[in-house]
Design goal:
Distance between the termini of chain A: 33 Å
Strand order of the largest sheet of chain B: 6-7-8-3-9-10
Strand content of chain A: under 5%
Strand content of chain B: 15-25%
CATH superfamily of the largest domain in chain B: P-loop containing nucleotide triphosphate hydrolases
CATH architecture of the largest domain in chain B: 3-Layer(aba) Sandwich
Largest sheet of chain B: 6 strands, mixed
Number of domains of chain A: 2
Structural class of chain A: mainly alpha
Number of domains of chain B: 2
CATH class of the largest domain in chain B: Alpha Beta
Order of helices and strands of chain A: HHHHHHHHHHH
Number of helices of chain A: 11
Number of strands of chain B: 19
Oligomer: heterodimer
Number of helices of chain B: 15
Largest interface: A-B, 53 and 68 residues
Number of strands of chain A: 0
CATH topology of the largest domain in chain B: Rossmann fold
Helix content of chain A: over 70%
Chain lengths: 266, 507
């Protein structure tokens, strides 16, 4: 996860650095989380291809403000490949079992539209939000410790885990193992051992270390965390949330006009 | 301030106490050093002082431990944490937040402090340690010295009465070590009780008021720092040197003294960073070469470039006059990285070494097949030759187990070993390949004197057999007893092809 909002910065330099980035990086993590949540609710209740198409276009525009169009293109190309495979398989099944009526291509499009919308909003969140911003957001929600701590530990653990995976793969290289698909097929048990044993032990050790760190920082002294800085939402955050809400409302309108048949797979 | 009276502590499921009959007192304004061989009970002493034993580790505590007059067994851990702060060997392990400012604020926020007071505490700690400009920095991007400062700032911002430092210099360069010594003097002057647990001793002369030496869970010697000048005591207890001359300026320049490993026109920059190596060229001889330089000079980066873990922007590599691709150098050599946990995979210590020998043999077969260099590396368990001298080195599991004092641990799971034992095991695995180039990154950071000398002997033996050993280390004692020469960073563009016929041939 990358740098994001600037109102969680300690120094003027840090805030200026965040301001220098694009719109997506300047949105508050809470805004992006709200947009993702709204997107996931919308794709669950909407099934009209026109409504989903509208949301897809809007979410693509939202994600493109990241400036990572190559990555977005690659992800969407992946979805397109999956869709083609699904179309091909459905057609083959229809040829093999003629009693099975062919599924309308437009209906088959629906799950992929949903997938693409979610991909856009989640990528925008993940690629523009620092883990620290997520932690600050959780902090600002003033959740009870029993909710906050497991969630914060989960989020805090992400960069450590990524670093561990990288180091384990480097170590295998230094030891002379070339772990590639062929090696995995030829030595499945050894591969499991080489990849997972250090990761499992690292995870256990990291859990222990974080537990000790939490205890020594005074966990248990109070029953609720008291953030030292109140993070306010800016106008752009309210505008982004209002825009997202308006788009979902428009989608619901399109769905109603086409006749409500919300939810379901297709 | 910090007082242990006749303390015996036994971990859960352990049959023997980790420490027994321990009595120790650290008064306000006093600094006490506790040292001793690995496994002597120093870590348990730290856990007793900060209350992790018995609050976190459970176990059975006999006798009494008090901090500022409060018995640790009866005081909640969050109260004790405010009375006695603990700085661990790797401060990153105790960071909970991901930026410097948030890390310092965290403990205050968890304690429900007024936001204004928390902000003031962060700013005051940042001012005191000169880290104001780092407040927005990610903790992962800090140097080891900076991490130590952040951890200390976080601890001291809570206003503790005592501080416990657990091997605080294991990852520090000599300059950061001296800065820490100054900081301890300042803490003493402020009336704080300081307990330092460390293998490295030289930096504490004139800093600590008393020294206790532990062995097998007991205090066996106690006195002022001068007791550590007794060679017999240090030898008997496996301690490190009490005085170390800084060898960094005295070591001769390595580049140009031999032609075993040649690097030509090396260029590399980290992403979004300035160029770290700008057309650097150097020739290295066989022997032990210390890679020296300030933090951020690129010592570890150079090691990673030479072994293909980072990709050079441009550059050429020749081993004994034969061109080698950096990602193929590992077929001729080994690199031992700092973090041991990631390097251990097998079910037992013996299997771990056997797997390394087998992987080395496979690599040797690969390079023989490539025709880069004639090679006659044997299968696992046999003896092979290395380098150019024709001498044989330890190449069977048993040889390596004996050499690194791991024979008694042969059937143990590698991940169950202590930090020092793991460190010896990963070095043994690195040497199992009988490498022509051996790169060691901070190989002795947590080792006591006995084991540090054991590793030093093994490194010297590898060099005597003809290997080029690159030692990336801040450990002055290790550098002084092992290195023949130094490669100093940043690398200027000193050795032109005209000066180095070897590189000229390459060009």
């Amino acid at each position: 996860m990358r740098a994001s909002s600037m109102n969680d910065r300690w120094t003027a330099g840090g805030a200026a650095g965040a301001r220098g980035r694009g719109l997506m990086h300047r949105l508050d993590a809470r805004t992006k989380m709200a947009v993702s949540l709204l997107g996931s609710v919308a794709v669950m209740v909407l099934s009209d291809p026109a409504a989903l198409g509208l949301l897809l276009a809007a979410s693509a525009a939202y994600a493109l403000t990241l400036g990572r169009w190559r990555m977005l293109l690659a992800c969407h190309a992946g979805i397109a490949v999956l869709m083609c495979v699904a179309f091909g398989l459905m057609h083959a099944m229809h040829l093999a079992v003629p009693r099975m009526s062919p599924l309308e291509p437009v209906r088959l499009l629906v799950p992929f539209l949903r997938l693409a919308i979610m991909l856009n909003v989640v990528l925008a969140l993940a690629l523009s939000t620092r883990v620290q911003a997520m932690l600050s957001t959780l902090k600002s929600l003033r959740l009870p410790f029993c909710v906050y701590i497991p969630t914060a530990v989960m989020v805090r653990f992400v960069p450590s885990f990524v670093a561990d995976v990288r180091q384990v793969s480097e170590t295998l290289k230094t030891r002379g193992y070339r772990v590639n698909p062929l090696f995995l097929l030829r030595h499945p048990l050894l591969s499991m051992r080489l990849l997972f044993v250090p990761l499992v032990f690292r995870a256990l050790r990291a859990a222990d270390e974080l537990g000790i760190a939490a205890e020594l920082k005074g966990l248990g002294y109070a029953d609720r965390l008291r953030p030292c800085r109140t993070v306010h939402l800016a106008r752009r955050d309210w505008a982004a949330m209002a825009g997202a809400l308006a788009l979902v409302a428009a989608g619901v309108g399109l769905q109603l006009r086409a006749g409500w048949g919300g939810g379901g797979m297709f | 301030m910090l007082r242990l009276t006749d303390v015996t502590y036994t971990y859960p499921h352990a049959t023997e106490p980790a420490v027994r009959g321990l009595s120790l007192r650290v008064r306000p304004g006093e600094a006490v050093l506790c040292t001793g061989p690995s496994g002597c009970g120093k870590s348990t002493l730290v856990r007793l002082a900060n209350g992790l034993c018995p609050h976190y580790y459970r176990g059975r505590l006999e006798g009494s431990v008090t901090v500022d007059g409060r018995r640790t067994a009866e005081t909640p851990l969050h109260e004790l944490a405010r009375l006695a702060g603990t700085l661990f060997q790797d401060p990153e392990n105790q960071f909970f937040a991901l930026t410097v400012g948030d890390e310092i604020a965290f403990a205050h926020e968890w304690r429900g402090s007024e936001p204004a007071r928390t902000l003031a505490a962060v700013q005051e700690a940042a001012r005191r340690f000169g880290i104001g400009h780092l407040l927005d920095q990610s903790i992962h991007d800090l140097s080891e010295g900076q991490k130590q400062k952040v951890a200390l700032a976080s601890i001291l911002s809570l206003g503790p009465r005592a501080v416990v430092l657990d091997e605080p210099t294991a990852n520090l360069d000599p300059e950061a070590t001296l800065a820490l010594a100054e900081e301890i003097r300042a803490l003493k002057a402020a009336g704080m009780a300081v307990l330092v647990v460390d293998h490295r001793l030289y930096w504490l002369e004139g800093v600590v008021d008393r020294v206790v030496v532990m062995a097998e869970g007991r205090i066996v010697e106690e006195g002022d720092f001068s007791i550590l000048h007794d060679d017999a005591l240090r030898q008997a207890r496996g301690l490190r040197a009490a005085r170390v001359a800084d060898p960094r300026t005295a070591l001769p320049e390595a580049s140009g003294r031999g032609d075993a490993l040649c690097v030509a026109d090396l260029r590399y920059a980290h992403k979004h960073g300035p160029e770290l190596f700008h057309g650097a060229s150097f020739l290295l001889p066989r022997g032990v070469i210390g890679v020296l330089g300030d933090n951020g000079a690129g010592k570890t980066t150079l090691a990673r470039l030479l072994t293909g873990l980072h990709r050079m922007h441009s550059g050429r590599l020749h081993l004994h006059g034969v061109p080698v691709r950096p990602d193929r150098l590992l077929r001729h050599g080994s690199i031992v990285l700092q973090n041991t946990d990631h390097q251990l995979h097998m079910k037992s210590v013996r299997e771990e070494i056997a797997a390394s020998i087998a992987a080395g043999a496979a690599g040797a077969a690969g390079r023989a097949g490539n025709g880069t260099r004639p090679d006659s590396r044997p299968a696992t368990g046999q003896t092979c030759q290395t380098g150019q001298t024709g001498q044989t080195g330890p190449s069977t599991e048993d040889d390596l187990l004996r050499l690194f004092n791991l024979a008694h641990l042969a059937d143990r799971h590698p991940q169950s070993l202590s930090g020092g034992e793991k460190q010896r095991l990963v070095i043994a695995c690195g040497m199992a390949k009988q490498p022509e180039v051996l790169i060691l990154d901070e190989p002795t950071s947590g080792l006591d004197g006995h084991n540090m000398r054991l590793v030093a002997d093994a490194v010297r033996a590898a060099a005597a057999r003809g290997a080029v050993v690159l030692l990336v280390s801040h450990d002055l004692e290790l550098l002084s007893i092992t290195c023949d020469a130094a490669l100093r960073l940043p690398l200027r563009c000193p050795h032109t092809t005209k000066e180095n016929p070897q590189c000229s041939t390459i060009s």
